[in-house]
Amino acid sequence: xxxxxxxxxxxxxxxxxxxxxxxxxxxxxxxxxxxxxxxxxxxxxxxxxxxxxxxxxxxxxxxxxxxxxxxxxxxxxxxxxxxxxxxxxxxxxxxxxxxxxxxxxxxxxxxxxxxxxxxxxxxxxxxxxxxxxxxxxxxxxxxxxxxxxxxxxxxxxxxxxxx
Length: 163
Hints:
Helix content is 40%, strand content 29%. It is built from five helices and nine strands. It has helices at 12-16, 26-35, 91-95, 116-125, 127-162, and strands at residues 3-5, 36-41, 46-48, 56-62, 64-70, 76-83, 87-88, 102-105, 109-115. A five-stranded antiparallel β-sheet has the order 1-2-9-4-7. A four-stranded antiparallel β-sheet has the order 3-8-5-6, with no helix packed on it. The longest helix is centred in the C-terminal third of the chain and has 36 residues, at 127-162. The mean pLDDT is 87.
C-alpha cells in the first residue's frame, strides 16, 4: 500500500458531490471538511487489504477502485468497481470489524479519507448531523445489498439453466 497523503483538505464542493453528504447543510459540510484529507493512490496499488484493521473510509474524488474478495481457492474475485462520487470502507465504521474485502486502484486515484474516530466524534457532537450521515450510510448499504441480491439471483438462474 503506497499512497501519498496530501496535507490540504478537500473543497466543500467536493464533499457536496458525494451522495453520503447530500443531506448536510453548509455548516455541517464544513465540519466534515475539517476532518477529511486528500490522498493520491497510484494505479495498481492497494488502498487496503482484506482482513486489515479499518481506521477510515474513503470517498472517490477522481478515478476508480476495484473491490476484491478472496475466493475459496485463494484468488481475488472482483466484487465491484466504484468510480467518482462513490465511497468505500464504511462498513467497518458501523460494525467495527476488519476489512471484508480489499480495495485496489484501477487507475490513478484522488481519494478523500475520513478517519472513523473523527467522524464518530462529529456525529456524537451533532446528533442531527450524525443521523443524516448514518441514514445516508444505511441507504447506501441497502442499495449495495439489493444489487448483490440481484446479482446472486441472476447467477443462480444461470447455474440452474446449465444443469
